[in-house]
Amino acid sequence: MIFYKKVKGDYKIKRWILTCIIGLIFTIMSCGTLVYKEFLSLKEIYINILLAIGGLIIIYYSIYKIIRRNLDILTKGSCKLSVNPKSHYNIKHERKNLMKGPKIVAIGGGTGLSTMLRGLKAYTSNITAIVTVGDDGGGSGTLREDLGMLPPGDIRNCILALAETEPIMQDLLQYRFKEGRLKNQNFGNLFLAAMDGISGGFEEAVQKMSDVLAVKGKVLPVTLDNMVLKATLKNGRIIEGESIIPEQCLKEESSIDTIEIIPSHSKALNEAIIALKEADAIVIGPGSLYTSIIPNLLVQGITEEIIKSKAIKIYVCNVMTQPGETDGYLLEHHLDALFKHSSNKLVDYVIANDSYISKQLKEKYLDKKSIPVYHRDNTEEKYKVKIIYDDIVSIKNDYIRHNSDKLAGIIFKLISKNKKSK
């Protein structure tokens, strides 16, 4: 009964078990004939020997395929080991279900994207995160300048979001040194930098780190070009460098008019283009509008593939405005900026927050020049998009973040609805 339960529903394993039984029958019958039949012609002896050998080969190959099938299911994406046979059965079938999940491409960067990925991985292992590489501040900026590598910070966050590792490993890779010459440097960034040093390139380094951490899905840099951000403010001032754009906007008391990437011909990673072509859903955001989301859309091939794609296209709007980037922005201002830098055919659905935020918390954020992103009633009609308003907020230690589980649930409802309508 236990044996049947373990193979129930897995037709590939059942098929190889049946093949193994057939091989066993051939071997037993031919060996029995050779041992117990008194008179055999030379031809009959040869035939039975060949049948016995053939049966043994079938048995060996069938067992090999059964083992490989179980290992594929257990190790595809990730696996937590347990001595409980029932746990192994559950893990195996969970892996199978995740492997059959929809193909989702998530585009963005920063903490917003990694927060969403934590929720999505509960529904599918077919996730591709396309991550911005314009960061030039903090530890990432230092490694970028010293080693000539792409900034690892956002990539690291997305890898950890999709990984199934022990808490100690998560803590280790997020550890930030507090003293000495490594002060403010992140161990995970150093890990990825070391991996880059022993690999054939940054893309390979990211893949190796993903393999080590048993990541569900893929994490890809949007481009391998050394990308720099350039913002033109509404007062005409031009600012280069992702890390200083918000700061200079506040200093100049002027908002961003346009954002550009240098070089302007930065080419998208081929694997990112393939992922967009094969996607069932494309999710843009959440994250910093001008420094994490829009730069990805400016890389050659990204916006074009999104527009051509028949996948459902979703934009996840930020819950709060970001000082120096989206001061005073309504939902429609986010869409204006998004479409201005890409196309008004970029999204079909918008997910926006409408949950209650306490007055006390609003005042705390107002001190940091941040307010909730509000919306007007005619936004849906004006932009020809369907807007899903819902409670997508998680508040912890007085910090407002997207609720990864709620957000993922809404996204998967939209994907299911879209599949049924086709």
UniProtKB/TrEMBL annotation:
<dbReference type="InterPro" id="IPR038136">
    <property type="entry name" value="CofD-like_dom_sf"/>
</dbReference>
<dbReference type="GO" id="GO:0008360">
    <property type="term" value="P:regulation of cell shape"/>
</dbReference>
<dbReference type="InterPro" id="IPR010119">
    <property type="entry name" value="Gluconeogen_factor"/>
</dbReference>
<comment type="function">
    <text>Required for morphogenesis under gluconeogenic growth conditions.</text>
</comment>
<keyword id="KW-0472">Membrane</keyword>
<keyword id="KW-0812">Transmembrane</keyword>
<dbReference type="InterPro" id="IPR002882">
    <property type="entry name" value="CofD"/>
</dbReference>
<protein>
    <recommendedName>
        <fullName>Putative gluconeogenesis factor</fullName>
    </recommendedName>
</protein>
<dbReference type="GO" id="GO:0043743">
    <property type="term" value="F:LPPG:FO 2-phospho-L-lactate transferase activity"/>
</dbReference>
<dbReference type="GO" id="GO:0005737">
    <property type="term" value="C:cytoplasm"/>
</dbReference>
<keyword id="KW-0963">Cytoplasm</keyword>
<keyword id="KW-1133">Transmembrane helix</keyword>
<feature type="transmembrane region" description="Helical">
    <location>
        <begin position="16"/>
        <end position="39"/>
    </location>
</feature>
<dbReference type="Pfam" id="PF01933">
    <property type="entry name" value="CofD"/>
</dbReference>
<feature type="transmembrane region" description="Helical">
    <location>
        <begin position="45"/>
        <end position="64"/>
    </location>
</feature>
<comment type="similarity">
    <text>Belongs to the gluconeogenesis factor family.</text>
</comment>
